[in-house]
Design a protein that fits this description.
The protein is mostly helical. The protein has helices at about 5-15, 20-30, 30-40, 50-55, 60-65, 75-90, 100-120, 125-135, 140-150. One of its GO terms (molecular function) is DNA binding.
Length: about 160
């Protein structure tokens, strides 16, 4: 992850929204100095602020980590790259079970494949019915999984 690039992107998006560093800071509950540090590549925002920051700037978390706007055609590759970078930098919580790089990478590929597959369905119920038939899980579990996938990749 390139902190400088991410910082420059945060500044660009903030300015596009015609906001000052102080205005952004107030919306996030941080100091304007914190925003300045992010924008200058000194540090990254706290992970607890990512969702709100992205909502305010109207960008995806994937775009935040990429430090640039990401077109739909390149979205999967950028998402994969961002998650692999997080793994390499150990910026994720593995809970009590350590996972190998191969296990993580295979899971990541499967998540990307499923997310792309789910986008092909006309509506949510059609996708959930497919998941129930393919996995044998309950409709409730499949609905929850569908919602997580769509939220994770900012699909509506």
């Amino acid at each position: 992850m390139n902190q400088k690039k991410i910082g420059t992107f945060i500044a660009e998006c903030r300015k596009r929204k015609k906001m000052t560093q102080l205005e952004l800071a107030e919306k996030l509950g941080v100091t304007d100095r914190s925003v300045s540090n992010w924008e200058n590549g000194v540090c990254l925002p706290d992970a607890s602020l990512y969702r709100l920051l992205c909502d305010i700037l109207q960008i995806s978390i994937n775009e935040l980590f990429a430090g640039e706007f990401v077109c739909n055609e390149n979205y999967k590759n950028v998402a994969d790259d961002n998650l692999l970078i997080l793994l390499e930098h150990r910026l994720y919580d593995t809970t009590s079970k350590e996972i190998t790089f191969d296990e993580f990478h295979n899971s990541l590929k499967r998540i990307s494949e499923i997310t792309l597959l789910l986008q092909r369905f006309e509506d949510k119920q059609e996708a959930i019915t497919y998941l129930v038939n393919e996995t044998g899980l309950s409709e409730e579990e499949c609905t929850s999984a569908y919602d997580i996938y769509m939220k994770m990749f900012d699909y509506k």
